[in-house]
Amino acid sequence: MRIAIPIFDQFTALDAVGPYEVLSRLPGATVTFVAQEPGPKRTETGMLALTADATFDELPDPEVIVVPGGFGTRALMSDETILSWLRCAHDTSEWTTSVCTGSLLLAAAGILDGLEATTHWLTLDTLQDHGATPVQRRVVEQGKVITAAGVSAGIDMALTLAAKIAGEDIGQAIQLGIEYDPEPPFNSGSTAKARPEIVQLVTERASQLA
Fold first, then answer.
1. What is the pTM of this model?
2. What is the pLDDT of residues 71-81, one digit of tens each?
3. Which of 14, 35, 82, 100 is catalytic?
4. Is 100 a catalytic residue?
5. What's the rounded Cα separation, in Å, for the pair 176 and 184?
């Protein structure tokens, strides 16, 4: 099974690496980082780079698509190179998925028209502006399209997908293999749980980075 993860400058590292760690453990899976041009793509912090080993043209029809998010998605929402690849790849994919603001690219490509979808809580309105019905759930399944909320939710999405592809036993085995048993030190992982001042702090920091 060929799994393509498109990367670009200013992507969020865990959006791509979290699903990679899960899906690369599927029997018979090959995960390829793809981009318009091969080579290193830096994360939004600039401190880490992943290498795209193939171009979009070299992998036009993967069975699985995983689109990560990050501040770099904003500029790509009008970039026909990646949007066209997403449309064409989605036509033949078995699964089309996203993490965080990666769903904005799926929406911009028209893939989420009329579908429920999620993204990072700060960008739910943008998702709605591009034809999707935003919902604030961690993982949203709509047929072969699966979207995940912000960053860490990509691991949940990938485990959900792994179970659909290879069965629940394999999904659970992968979860155990990566020892994904989170016990967060704070109960502030969603806007429903975080104190208002914490929500405001994140909102202000995001506006400075945008």
1. 0.97
2. 999 999 999 99
3. 100
4. yes
5. 17
